[in-house]
Design a protein that fits this description.
Helix content: 40-55%
Shape: globular
Strand content: 5-15%
Number of helices: 20
Structural class: alpha/beta
Radius of gyration: 24 Å
Largest sheet: 6 strands, mixed
Number of strands: 14
Distance between the termini: 43 Å
């Protein structure tokens, strides 16, 4: 009988016994769909079909997988499948900054981290408690479905309101707030045997360019970088974060040639030597435009390893990246010792989160050193527990901004106009989500538009009706902007000019609210929520329409 990956790890072969190609392969983490079947793959350019993925794991021997898509139940099966394919246990990661439910339906979905900043301004102790509980919940639910690497927290200082890629993913706008909440989040996550990740080094908060598309430039000098950008990373390192993810951006004050991900000056000198970080250095996804468009798969992989990266995340062609790094070692361009140092750190990380009993005589036991046998408890009992859902609701309520209330009996022929960035990618909306059902129960008719559908004479905002306007817009990767879309601006101004705006609800970005408040008449009620998911809609609309129906909807909302 073939030993399981866990049994294999108990006989974990020394990395020195692996051939060079397998050593380098352990430095590669590939992207895969969380769905179980090939026809469900949503991003075929990045997510290989099952046969290819199995070969990458089984034949090529890659060291890990990053997952996106599917439900929490599917992930439970998917992660078991991946580990079964592997000869050595895999690091299995996901970007679950806002909870496992952000990526995998059914688990807990938290508001974006910046919601904690709003609470921190009023009650620091309460915000820190929420951050710690959030970290613990994310770690516990990750383990329940087979993830062992949490690609969080984001420790960037979002002091640029136009930041299209960090935005509300950050804990706040000052290094002090971000540092405090980072430490609390890590305390919570460290209750469970998962890897944590501080990102995006050396700081992606003060950029106005999306690195998924182009290369941002950070023009600040040494003193400013040390004071603002690096401060939360020092805190995270001091708090024992396991990994640090690089940022795809250029800092001329440190390196005029290479972006941070490919810069020895930044990854080795600043992070490894000056900040004395001993854990894993992982690149941000190497398929992102800031890197892929300039360097290609092979050269980007070689440069990242030369710079000091231990993990190459999502190279476009994993086999080509591995061959390029091996060739660089063989030619002498990359010293063999550089690979060996990364393998030592990778082996340490895998032992930490995969091995059940690794006890050192000269260290105190950690949670990962006393793992019980494989749990027999139904994994669904570990997801979306009542206390987790209550925490989500509490964070939403305490971070919400409110002004006034809508009429309990709206005028006849009132309309519920919902504006989103992209209707085809709005997982927070459905036929039974509160943003639709609650206004409908009060007599509102529904209109849905996005930047693709609101064109010419078909624009629903041109209809002359009393209107509840609900806006779902926030900074998201690949959108290229965190500000108001032209669609939102047109609808909003048109309703204001015709006197038809009855109430406003903004979900997602406080920066969007700030822009709209400039011209919003003071007698118009509004609500702002950091969250966009169903429970955020219920909480916001319960305040706007304090009716029995709204209260009941909030109580029933998952």
């Amino acid at each position: 009988m073939t030993p399981s990956p866990l049994q294999s790890l108990l006989r974990f072969p020394p990395w020195e016994t692996l051939p060079l190609r397998q050593q380098v392969a352990q430095m590669v983490v590939v992207r895969a769909s969380g769905y179980l079947f090939d026809h469900q793959i949503r991003y075929p350019a990045w997510e290989p079909p099952a046969a290819v993925l199995r070969s990458l794991i089984q034949d090529l021997g890659v060291g890990g997988v990053i997952l996106l898509g599917g439900s929490a139940g599917e992930l439970h099966l998917r992660t078991q499948q991946l580990q079964d394919w592997a000869h050595l246990p895999l690091l299995i990661a996901a970007d679950v900054e806002e909870g496992v439910g952000q990526r995998f339906a059914g688990a807990t979905w938290f508001p974006p981290p910046m919601a904690l900043n709003a609470i921190f301004q009023q009650d620091q102790a309460k915000a820190l408690g929420h951050a710690e509980a959030m970290g613990a919940t994310i770690a516990q639910e990750s383990l329940a479905i087979g993830l062992n690497w949490v690609l969080a927290p984001v420790v960037d200082v979002n002091n640029n309101a136009a930041n299209p890629v960090i935005n509300v993913r950050a804990f706040g706008e000052t290094p002090e707030v971000v540092s405090h909440l980072t430490a609390a989040f890590l305390r919570g996550a460290q209750r469970h045997p998962v890897l944590t990740t501080a990102k995006h080094f050396p700081g992606h908060g003060d950029t106005a360019v999306d690195s998924h598309l182009e290369l941002p430039i950070v023009p600040h000098l040494e003193d400013r970088l040390q004071q603002i950008e690096l401060s939360p990373f020092r805190t995270a390192i001091g708090a024992g974060v396991d990994a640090v993810m690089s940022a795809h951006l250029q800092i001329p004050a440190w390196d005029r040639t290479y972006p941070a991900t490919l810069s020895p000056r930044i990854l080795t000198q600043e992070l490894r030597q000056n900040l004395q970080f001993a854990g894993l250095i992982v690149t941000d996804a190497l398929v992102m435009g800031a890197i892929a468009n300039r360097y290609g798969t092979e050269e980007a992989a070689v440069l990242a390893v030369e710079a000091g990266a231990d993990i190459l995340l999502m190279p476009a062609d994993p086999a080509a990246a591995i061959e390029a790094v091996c060739a660089a070692v063989t030619s002498g361009r990359i010293p063999l010792e550089r690979i060996q140092a990364s393998l030592e750190r990778i082996w340490w990380a895998k032992q930490k989160v995969c091995a059940p009993a690794i006890v050192s005589e000269d260290t105190h036991p950690h949670a990962w050193e006393t793992l019980p046998d494989a749990p027999r408890q139904d994994f669904t009992a570990l997801l979306s527990q009542p206390q987790s859902l209550k925490l989500v609701q509490t964070i939403l309520q305490e971070s919400m901004t409110c002004h006034g209330q809508a009429p309990s009996l709206p005028p006849a022929a009132s309309r519920n106009l919902i504006v989103v960035d992209n209707l085809l990618d709005s997982e927070f909306l459905g036929l039974q989500t509160p943003a639709i059902t609650l206004p409908q129960s009060l007599g509102y008719s529904l209109a849905l538009i996005d930047r693709q559908t609101a064109t010419g004479g078909s624009d629903p905002s041109a209809i002359n009706q009393p209107t509840l306007l609900q806006v779902f817009v926030r900074g998201n990767p690949f959108r290229g902007s965190a500000g108001l879309t032209q669609t939102v601006q047109t609808c909003f101004q048109s309703l204001i000019e015709r006197g038809q705006l009855q109430a406003l609800v903004v979900y997602g970005s406080p920066y969007i609210l700030e822009q709209l408040l400039i011209t919003l008449p003071p007698d118009i009620p509004y609500v702002f929520s950091y969250g966009q998911m169903a429970i955020a809609q219920a909480v916001a609309l319960q305040h706007l329409f304090p009716t029995e129906k709204a209260t009941s909807l909030n109580q029933d909302c998952p």
